[in-house]
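Sharing in case it's useful to others searching the archive later.

Someone asked me privately for the predicted structure of DUF3309 domain-containing protein, so I'm posting the question and my answer publicly. Question first, with the sequence:
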Amino acid sequence: MLGTVLLIILILLLIGALPNWGYSRGWGYGPSGGLGLVVLIVIILLLMGRI
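And my answer, the predicted C-alpha cells:
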C-alpha cells in the first residue's frame, strides 16, 4: 500500500515537472528526467517486492 501511494505521488510530481509553462521552459528535461528515473526505480522495487 505504501509503495502504491509513493508511486502515485512520484507520478504527479513527474507531470508537474514537465516544461509546459513559460517559467519552466528554461529548466529543460532535467527535473522530469530525474523524477522519471526515481519512478522507474520505485516500479522496479515494487516488482521485486522490496517496498
